[in-house]
Design a protein that fits this description.
disordered N terminus; single chain; eight-stranded mixed β-sheet; Alkaline Phosphatase, subunit A; globular
Length: 547
């Protein structure tokens, strides 16, 4: 059983630590604790408080009721790893070469990415730990990937304790009540996927219980609602009249909500709620939904709340996600802010300001301290937000570059010839393209995007690549034929040549047969196979990703 102390003891410890009495209504005299809860692929519309007609999220509703709900918050990339990079560094992930999710070394190399986030980057947990905080990370990691044995452990990034999945070091099930029934222990295992967030929350609750009296920073990064979306029969009980696949999806959301409730409960039990900042958000918009039971994303039935685009899109449905903040006495209860342009890179400087901790010497961030906005005061953003999406471009995923300046969002395709301009406060659903009527604004924002783009690294740092893969790569024989280059034209030629039966799609067998280097062919095939049907259309294959 974890060590627990009473609320009265906590108050005495807090008071003794800073030399002030602890009583209701006092000004903040201690550094606040911080709990950052990050869901995975949860859409803006997946909360009951955001208008979902069926899903139940009572604890998130409570968090919003006791804190603030920011409707115009955006993450800085529409997929996992770069979005998370932006949170912990306060800088655009492209500055660190993180453009898509971390995968195998081969796929990372093809995407011109490192194999892990540089641990020398400025990191929120490290800065807080150096200021006296105890730090922990529980749940999804994904700041490295592919099971690389030499990837840095979470401790290298500033965490005192960690238990994770999709990352190195201690697995999230170790040391929990689920250690003996973890199944394969991977996110693609249906049994494990239903337990991962519960196990991560067990760790977080124990850490909070044992750390009372000293400020703490905890990341609780949930599995829900990433693929594989799963739910136990017990999870599904609140939805007896809902048909599949929505029943499983709703149950998974409600299970995640229960974990939020467990965090709020332990803070209440220990008398820490008033001294703790709790933030809930999601790393990107909802996964693309499939309608057939045999399709990969059949249970991925998330809602954007009507926003255009989903995961992998720079349209608002891919990056405009929930952002709830509770800090009693500092953040006004029940406040709904629909206009302030908060962004993921603001978390770093804002939390440091809230904690009274200066940023590292020489630190240049892309975010800004938005503490006044959290406190309910009008605050105009002074820095633009930039996005660069290098993944597949097609459908609603067509934007490659984007910029936000106040309420204005400019999106460009990879050729920079398709242009859309929207006021995303007045036109939340991006239904009215104002590019033609605002040529000066478009030109100025295009120039700003180009100038920012020119500052970004285009190749990974070799020091951030696995040593295990380096030796086999040098021993590979010379290619017998040229591999398709990273252009649409060469991939179009390859598609025509490899489609042997000329049926307009590539099977895995046809794709593998056409490759000169067949190593990791199946994973590479899946990176193009957007709908998970096992066949590549010309639209899916002829894209910007190098193959």
């Amino acid at each position: 059983m974890p060590f627990r102390i009473s609320a009265a003891t906590v108050s005495v410890l807090l008071a003794a630590a800073v030399g002030f009495p602890a009583f209701a209504g006092e000004a903040v005299s201690v550094r606040p604790n911080i709990v950052f809860i990050y869901a995975d692929d949860l859409g803006f519309g997946d909360l009951a408080g955001h208008g979902h007609p069926r899903v139940r999220t009572p604890h998130l509703d409570r968090l919003a009721r006791e804190g603030a709900d920011f409707w115009s918050f955006t993450v800085v990339n529409p997929v996992c790893s770069p979005s998370r990079t932006g949170i912990v560094t306060g800088q655009f992930p492209s500055r660190w070469g993180v453009h898509q999710h971390f995968a195998t070394h081969e796929l990372n190399a093809e995407r011109h990415m490192p194999d892990w986030l540089d641990p020398r980057a400025p990191l929120l947990p490290r800065v807080l730990r150096e200021a006296g905080y105890r730090t922990a990370h529980y749940g999804k990691w994904h700041l490295s990937g592919g099971g690389l044995k030499d990837a840095p452990l979470p401790a290298a990034y500033g965490y005192d304790d960690a238990a994770v999945w999709t990352g190195p070091g201690r697995n999230v099930f170790e040391g929990t009540r689920y250690a003996a029934e973890r199944g394969e222990g991977a996110a693609q295992d249906r049994h494990a996927a239903s337990l991962m967030s519960v196990a991560a929350t067990d760790h977080a609750v124990d850490f909070i219980s044992a750390t009372a009296g000293r400020p703490f920073y905890v990341n609780l990064w949930l599995h829900e609602t990433h693929h594989l979306v799963s739910a136990t029969e017990e999870d599904k009980q609140p939805y007896p009249d809902v048909a599949e696949p929505h029943r499983t999806y709703f149950a998974a959301v409600t299970r995640a909500d229960r974990q939020v409730g467990r965090i709020l409960a332990v803070l209440d039990e220990l008398g820490l709620a008033r001294h703790t900042i709790v933030i809930f958000s999601s790393d990107n918009g909802p996964e693309n939904s499939h309608q057939a039971p045999n399709q990969k994303f059949y249970y991925s039935q998330g809602s954007t709340g009507g926003l255009r685009g989903r995961k992998r899109s720079l349209l608002m449905g891919g990056v405009n996600v929930p952002f709830l903040v509770r800090w009693p006495g500092q953040v006004p209860a029940g406040h709904v802010d629909k206009t302030t342009a908060l962004a993921g890179v603001d978390v770093f400087p804002t939390l440091l300001a809230a904690a009274g901790v200066p940023p590292p010497a020489g630190y240049v961030g892309d975010g800004e301290n938005m503490l006044a906005a959290l406190r309910g005061q009008p605050q105009a953003r002074t820095k633009p937000v930039f996005w660069w999406w290098q993944g597949h471009h097609g459908g609603d995923d067509w934007p490659a570059l984007a910029m936000r300046e106040g309420p204005w969002v400019l999106t460009l395709d990879e050729t920079r010839s398709r242009v859309e301009l929207h006021d995303v406060v007045a036109d939340r659903f991006q239904s009215n393209n104002l590019a033609a009527s605002q040529p000066e604004r478009v030109a100025r924002m295009q120039a700003a995007i180009a100038a920012w783009f020119d500052t970004l690294p285009k190749q990974p740092d070799p020091a951030l690549q696995t040593k295990e893969a380096a030796k086999p790569a040098r021993k590979q024989p010379a290619k017998k034929e040229a591999a398709p280059a990273a252009t649409s034209e060469t991939r179009a030629r390859a598609f025509q040549n490899w489609d042997k039966n000329q049926d307009g799609v590539l099977t895995l067998e046809e794709y593998r047969a056409g490759l000169a280097n067949k190593q990791n062919a199946e994973n590479r095939f899946r990176s193009f196979d957007r709908n998970g049907d096992g066949r590549l259309t010309r639209e899916e294959f002829v894209g910007p990703v190098a193959k």
